[in-house]
Design a protein that fits this description.
The chain is an alpha/beta fold and 122 residues long. Helices cover 30% and strands 11% of the residues. The protein has a 3-stranded parallel β-sheet.
């Protein structure tokens, strides 16, 4: 699932997953949050998720500082781990000129902040 892909929304992603049992996801919640979807709307996708990208975001903001976004990554982490998730979590901050304001965050600082958030209470 990705903003501007054939499956940009949680519902369209779920519809694709219904077509096969062999497809699993790399889930990047920031693409859903950017479009205004709430974290809970992606919960039906979690049993088919094998890799999670971690980058804070929110409506109209595909990349945000850890403290300013709307995604509750602690809740996502806990829900996944409580269900037996054994996939990967990858912090994915990037710096790129000219696309969706990717230059507004300190990638190294936000990567460390996201790491700390994900390790707290885990």
């Amino acid at each position: 699932p990705h903003f501007r892909s054939v499956v940009p929304t949680p519902a369209r992603t779920a519809a694709l997953l219904e077509l096969t049992t062999d497809v699993h996801l790399a889930l990047d919640q920031s693409h859903f949050a950017f479009q205004g979807y709430e974290l809970e709307e992606s919960f039906p996708l979690l049993d088919r998720t094998r890799h999670v990208h971690l980058r804070q975001g929110g409506p109209g903001l595909i990349q945000a500082r850890v403290g300013e976004g709307t995604i509750d990554y602690a809740a996502l982490r806990d829900r996944l781990l409580d269900s037996g998730y054994d996939g990967y979590f990858t912090v994915e901050y990037q710096w790129e000129e000219g696309w969706l304001d990717f230059t507004r965050v300190d990638c190294i600082g936000e990567t460390a902040a996201m790491r700390d958030l994900m390790l707290a209470g885990a």
